[in-house]
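Case study 2.
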Amino acid sequence: MANYVDYEYYKTLFGEKAIPEADFNRLVWDSCKKIDNATTGVDNVKKLKIAFPTDEDDAEAVKRCVCELLSITYKIEQAETRVEASQGYITLEDGTVMSKQVASKSAGNESISYVTSSNTGTATLIDKCLADKEAQKQLYSDTIRDYLSGVADANGVSLLYMGMYPTEYL
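Prediction:
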């Protein structure tokens, strides 16, 4: 599978917010695959494979979409890592066992507070996606739609058109 962006392009676009190159190399294929899946019609033609946009703005939209998907995936991974590091289990007074998430720590006389509800009111969109895989899929889908709506391949076929690809271009 071809990657639609390289690390230099990505790093130039995201600057200081760019993810490390090793993570980019690991995640770029998945981001490109998400776009390929979203732009494949009923006849299994991967539009970007056969007719990558030649219009400069349309090509830029595809590249920026890949970069945004990379960013989202990286943020989700980082959030998962934070949650895993802070989770464990506690037994409540009534004997109920529940997962814990550290909310705060103190050093003097040692004190640890745990989040007792996942509904703390400070959850980000990424946090919500951790708990709900459908929300995660929707976030990826919405991102692709936002970037690629109105974008055509080199043959003028909308990337998001999911019908039969015109046979004159095959």
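The first strand starts at residue 87 and ends at 91.
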